[in-house]
Amino acid sequence: MKKLNNTLLLFVALISFTSISQTTEAEAIEIANSGSEQEVLMHASTLMSGGYLHLSEILTDKLIEFQPESSNYNYRKGFLTLYIRKDYQSALPYFKKAILDIGNNYDMYSTKEKSAPVDAYFHLAQCYHYNEQIDEAEENYRKFKELSKKKSPLLPEADLRLKQCEIARANMLAPVNVYLKNIGSQINTEHPEYSPVISLDGSALYFTSRRPWTNKESHEFKDPAINQFPEDVYVSYQDFDSTWTTPIRLEFCQPRRNEATIAISADERKIYLYEDSTGNGDIYYTDFYHAKFNEITKFEEDDVNTDAWETHCMMSPDKKTFYFVSDREGGFGGRDIYMMTRTNVKKGEGDEEDWSKPVNLGPQINSAFDEDSPFISIDNKTLYYSTNGEKSIGGFDIMTANLQDDGTFDEGKNLGYPFNSTNDDIYYTTTLDGKKGYMTSHRNDGFGEKDIYEIYNDYLGVRDVAVLKGVIKTVDDKPIPEDFAINVRLVCVDCDENNNNKLVYPRLRDGVFMTALEPCKTYKLEYMNVTDDIKMHDDGFTTLCDTNYQEIYKELLLDVDKRIIIIPEDTLELDPVIAADYPNLEFMHYFSYNKNKLSTKKGDLKKFVKEVEEQLKDGRETITINIYSSASYVPTTTFGTNEKLTKVRAENMKYDLIAYFNKKDEYKGKVNVVIVTTVVQGPEYEKDARNKDKYKPYQYVGLKTE
């Protein structure tokens, strides 16, 4: 999924051989076992010049057997270890030996050459930098600058990395509050796993892996440079106990081809992919149709895929903006992020789907270095991306920026340490509220060269957004028709006319649907048979005005054969009526560890429901009770995850309230109960569960009427 590293190109450029070796692994092993030192050296150099790094390493291992203390051979081994596997810890001792003897006139073809080039200091500094040993990294970057020739192509990179060391030191002295963990061996293996894309509700993880096919069908297509299997796309689903199921390779993958995940649509009916069979790398997609993902198709827009290198893309959740990455001419340098806006929405079979010309996101985001992996949150405003430029603390770092009213982004900001490490941190995607995300990183606790990490934070998250989230179930558990959709119609006089209607399709695997809404607006939902343009049911609600993030939950039953909607009685939701004459009622209860249920027969909850009754007796026709629940980060073995605990708290409250009011004929159908938020928040857990004062403020259920 990447071109040859610039530093590797510099190394290869030192070799004047023009022949490209066709040596097999068996032949390389035979040369290592039977050849003279000069023969092994020459073959190792020829293989390096052809980009066959893995085979060159086989011969380099033999060279070290010939001369274990040779700075020259140790430099070669350190370089290959670092650039084939990025195993900076294993490379360190080789570079330490390499710098013991530095030569000004390095001859890498001669067996008499015992010295290493000055570049060894640069690569040693890289290893220290990746390992978060900032002082040692700076010392060796400076040593490299002092001894290297003034025309060395590595000098600008050394200057960049010294700036990154300064930023790293400052960030490491003021770490941000995050909880980060390797996602574990069910997903990560000894092979690289990367480019995770999490579904909005966190239930599905799509990712790229270079693991072998179990039938060995992909073995013959290994990358000869780095000895890795081709890229394939996998998906894993979160089980009821919050563990990840065994990953499934998607059906469009081919053993000889590289396919890598870059984005999915909110309804998980479209996957965007990177594929490099054209030689430069382009953006492709595949649609879920007839119960499977179909063969991949090159993205049609002429202005996206070019003769340049296009590596990544992201469609905004509202489908109005398309972000992509390219190293085409006219940018700020390296890879840049571009965007196109939709100028005409495709509504019918004959309608055209038009896009604006690509626009560079500008110097607030792009730099003279590389920017990659754009991800836009559910609010369509919060951008996450990665850069390896002067704002990074080392390698790629994840940044964030916000879309302004004028259509441009403010300046990107580093998410801090240890969210970012001094190694590569890239491909960040989040769930709905932005508090939990997944990314690719190379850290000391990893299983392979790249691993996928899960990360929680309490300082990010979307703002000023409401989210409609629900589930469609079917009679007799029949599959959801592919043409079923929800028409979300915004009913308000002061809204943009273009935002009044949108179709939201449910996921076909489980009927879940999600979309972003505006706060403080009234919405009407129409449940549609899109093929026949038939409305099967409608209802509505008003989003809150005074909360940063809210979720509105809907649940309905679809009779597939009759094409009708059946609304379960206990989830019937009526259009709320805003009654200014009645004061809003509020209730808050703080739970002890793992507690999740209250009684309407006692305490403050009893008082709350009685006050609701009084308003209904006084003539209030309907009332909506909004539920807000929270759990802390104190681990729960009972529920498996805190996300599940906070949802249990909300659901217990919802159904207790529904049961309470529906058993009384005079109130039945007059009380609408809505789960607005279920969050996990508070300070990072530090194995101090007995500190109740610290965590109890984040273990609650709250109620508010409207």
Describe the 3D structure.
- The chain is of the alpha+beta class.
- It folds into four domains: 6-173, Serine Threonine Protein Phosphatase 5, Tetratricopeptide repeat (Alpha Horseshoe); 178-457, TolB, C-terminal domain (Neuraminidase); 469-567, Immunoglobulin-like; 568-706, OmpA-like domain (60s Ribosomal Protein L30, Chain: A, 2-Layer Sandwich), CATH 3.30.1330.60.
- It contains twelve helices and 34 strands.
- Strands 6, 7, 8, 9 and 10 form a five-stranded antiparallel sheet that branches. Strands 11, 12, 13, 14 and 15 form a five-stranded antiparallel sheet that branches.
- β16 and β17 (382-387) form a beta hairpin.
- α7 (119-130) packs antiparallel against α8.
- The radius of gyration is 29 Å and the shape is elongated.
User: What does the average pLDDT come to?
Assistant: 87
Q: How many E strands?
A: 34
Q: Using the coordinates shown, work out and report the CATH topology of the largest domain.
A: Neuraminidase
Considering the protein shown, what is the CATH homologous superfamily of the largest domain? TolB, C-terminal domain
Tell me, briefly, the overall form: elongated
Q: How many distinct domains? A: 4
Helicity range of the residues? 10-25%
Number of helices: 12
Question: What is the CATH architecture assignment of the largest domain?
Answer: 6 Propeller
Class computed from helices, strands and strand pairing? alpha+beta
Distance between the termini: 52 Å
Radius of gyration: 29 Å
CATH class of the largest domain, anyone? Answer: Mainly Beta
Strand content: 25-35%
Q: Which regions are unreliable across 5 or more consecutive residues at pLDDT < 50?
A: 12-21, 347-351, 570-580
Describe the main β-sheet briefly.
5 strands, antiparallel
